[in-house]
Amino acid sequence: MNEFFDKTEQSIKHLQALHDFFNNPANYVIPDEQTDLEIYQSNLAELVNSFSEINAFEQLYNKDDRQLILADLFEYFLLGRAFYSMGNSRSTFDKKEHFTKGILHFVNLLMCFESITVNVQRRNRLLDYLITQVPSIEDEDNFAELRDYPAEVGLPGSVEGKTLGKYFDKLMPKTAGGLWHELLVYIFVIRNDLGYILPLLLHQKIYSKSDHLVPPDFLIITKDKRVYGIEVGIKKEIQSGSFSLKTAIPTATIDTINSRNSDRCPICKKWINFCPFVIENYSNFNNEIERTEVKCLTSCNIFTRDQILNGECKYSKYSRGRAATLAHTHHDFADGKHYHYHCVLENVTPAKRAEIIAAEDTPAIKTHYPYYSGLEELF
Question: What angle do CA 338, 340, 341 make, to 5 degrees?
Fold first, then answer.
C-alpha cells in the first residue's frame, strides 16, 4: 500500500516544488523578470480568492466529507490511474487479470480496516496514531468521546448513538462495503465482458451552465452500442430515475446486500474475506465460473481437506440450517446465516466441534465468487 502513497507523495512534492520555485522572488534575478513574478503572484492571489469563495479547498479534506474524500483517493489510485496499467492489448488478458487480483486483495485490506468496529484496543491504538499524523483530529467534536468509548461502534444495531457512529464512519473510507462494492462491480463487468465501463465515481455531479446531472456510479457501453447506467447499492432509485428521465439512459441498480461479497460473521462481527482460492480462480479469465458458490471441501486446492475441516483456513464460511435427522446441526449456529467456519468451531462444545468435523458437511462449508444481480439484461 505504501507504494501508492509514496508515488502520490512524490507527485505532490513535484507540484509543490514547481509552485515554490515560481513564487520565490529569489528565482527572478534579472530586473526584466520582475514582471513575470508579478504576473504569477497576482494570478495566484486571485486563484486563492476565487476558490476560497466557493470553499473549493475544503473539498480536499474536511471532517464532514472525510470518508468520501478518503474513498475518492483510493478510487483515483485504482480507477483513475492504476487502471491504465491494464493496457489496450486484445490478445492477452494478463494485465487485466493482475489488476483484478489486486482489486480483490485490496478489498480484503478494506475489510481488515473495519476490524476496528469490534476491536476496541486496536481502534484506540489507531486513534492515537492518527493524531500524530493529523493533529487537528484530536480537537474535533466526538474524538475524545470515541477514544473513551469502551464497546463496538459502527455496527448495525450498535447502541453508541447516531452522532458517535457517524463520527466513527468519517474516520474511514466509505465504511460497510461502500467502496469495495464499487471496485468489485468494476472488475465484475470487465471479467464478464459486459461492455466498456466508464467509472463516474469521481464525478458525482455533471454540470452544464444552467443545470447539473447526478449520474450513476458507472456507465456501460455494450458491444451492440447500447448505453446503461449502473448504480451500486439500493436507496438511490429517485436519483437514478431523475438521471434516466433527463438523459434517456436506462439505469440498473446493483444489489449489494445479497451479493455474498460482504458477509459479516455474526460471531466475531468481522467481514469474511475473499479466500486465496477464489482470488486465484476469479482473476484467471480462462476459468469459466458457472456457480458463485464454492464448496470448500471439494474445490479448494490451497488448503487440504483436513485443514479446512479443522478450521485452519480462516476464510471458509459456514451456513447450515438445523435438520432434525442430522445431529451435527443441533447447535446455535445452524440458523442459515453465514459465519466464519473457524468461529463456529471455536464457539461450540468440544464434543460438538468433533461432531461437526466428523460430519464433513460439504454443503455447509463454502465461500463465494464475486457476483452482483441487476445486470442480467447485459448477460
Answer: 100
CB 267 within 8 A of CB 333: yes
Give the alpha-carbon dihedral of 342, 345, 346, 347, to 10 degrees.
Answer: 120
The continuous run of DSSP H or E covering 147 comes out as helix 143-148
Judged by DSSP in three states, 199 sits in strand
Q: Pairing between strand 339-340 and 251-254?
A: unpaired
Determine contact, residues 318/364, Cβ cutoff 8 Å: yes
* pLDDT tens by residue, 49-98: 999 999 999 999 999 999 999 999 999 999 999 999 998 766 567 899 99
For residues 118 and 129, give the distance between their C-alpha atoms in angstroms, rounded to a whole number: 18
Instruction: Return the sign of the alpha-carbon dihedral for residues 272, 278, 280, 282.
Output: negative
* CB-based contacts of 91, cutoff 8 Å, min separation 6: none
Which residue, chain included where needed, has cell 484530536? 138
pLDDT in tens, 18-37: 999 999 999 998 877 888 99
Instruction: Compute CA distances 118 → 4, 198, 266, 330, whole Å.
Output: 28, 36, 12, 28
Number of helices and strands in the chain (H, E)? 14, 10
**C-beta separation of 86 from 102 below 8 A:** no
Confidence of residue 374 (pLDDT cuts 50, 70, 90): confident
Show the cell assigned to 83: 487502471
- Phi then psi dihedrals of residue 335, to 5 deg: -130, 10
Contact 172, 114 (CB under 8 A): yes
Averaged pLDDT for residues 140-155:
93
Written as nine digits, the cell of 90 is 486484445
